[in-house]
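*** Protein under study ***
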Amino acid sequence: MIHITKRLLCMLCCMALLIPFLQITQASAAEEGVFDTLLESADRLLFEEHNLTLDGEMVFTLDGERFKTARVHYVQDGGDTLYRLQLFTPRVNEETGETEDRETGFLVIVNDYNVYSMETYTPGTYGHGSDIADDTILVRSMITDQVYQLAKGLLREKEKGMEGRIQVDADEDGGKTIQVSMGQDDADDMLNAVLTIAAHYVIGRYSGYGVDGLPNHYSRDYDNYVSVAAAIADTTDVYRLGQVQLSAKLDAEGRYVSVQGNAEVQLHSNTGSDEDRILGVTFEGTAGEYGESSVEQFDPESYGVISLREYMESRNVKGEMKEYLTGEMARLAELAGYDPDLLGRVSVTNNALHDYFASAQTEDGAADLWIIAFDDPQLPIKGFQDLEADWLEYRATVDTDEVTDEEVRSKTQEGMTEFLNQVHPELLGYLDWDRLMTWEDSEGRIYCEIDCDTGDPVYDSVTLVVQVSPTWRVEYYSSAANG
């Protein structure tokens, strides 16, 4: 549940790159040699280039209304990578009534196996981890190779009859510019099938969402999702290409230099709706500095940041706020079904966004409880969760079912109501019990969850996950957006 919005936007960016690529290759098949050139250039860019710089911007709309703008700066320097993603989401200012962009995003720098990340919601800090260093934009897999070969064979079959769909102009520098303008009728069922397969692969790789991971009856209306990206990923079973306009430039060596244009994709929902939604993408990007790009070794001082661990240690809270949250930890732990007498020392920190975090482990190490609160004790608690809950690692891939056992439903509703009544009673009116879902893990533990939007600018959603059996307890509660 953490950072899902950003992962889904990365997923949408990848899907947007697939759209013009498929249309370019289909249209170009009629020009002798252009088809293979474009395929080979795309394959080289994604899987073989070890040193390059990419810049781009994508604007996403749903049925003509913008819901996200993404700006990307990416540098590959062998095993070192720099990746900056800026996301802009339109939100209505409650005071002025005007629409303003809220910016989120992150900057990631990879030096060998060291990964340094800086996120907008924790300004002035960086996180540090480790991962396998990749020396190309993407890494080949069996699925990518099979989709590539499927598209290649399909498009070669469609070479005939494609004349007049593209314009190829030779440039003075020895490169070429390809312009494409196509309509919905130019994409047949086979091509749309390739796009759908590729889209579902990207969705599963980046988010764990998707119609293969969740049953159809769990998918719901767009308005009931935390983000439009999540709604698209979770409810779309078929993607169909629509209008596409594109201009792509290759250099004398057949490498991509720039691309710009717009595309529409029809989204067929699995929710039972007869009307397709229209995803629009306007994009422009450049590729360059081949062989000359460099990623410097990460230096915290040059970015004006300190490690998150150092920051949290410097923000240890004492005094009245610690006393208040220590009491809240014991109260919520007991209310959620944990034994407050087993709790160890409560640690309280705060961040630059004026959120306070209280954490405490149980003496047996079975639970790691966290509270998220505003800096004003008069305001309701924002969140409560057990970080030791196993399902946090795999929840997005679990099939859920409607709660048909009336005893389980009654017990869960009663317990959730009692918990919210003590934590934030105003949110009870937003709960739609028809959206109560359940699942069972490999250990036989039964869980129930409910997730509803509120429309409130601060507490914009409410999510509760409880373990129903063998022990009843609240393991996750959130009442505010996570970005």
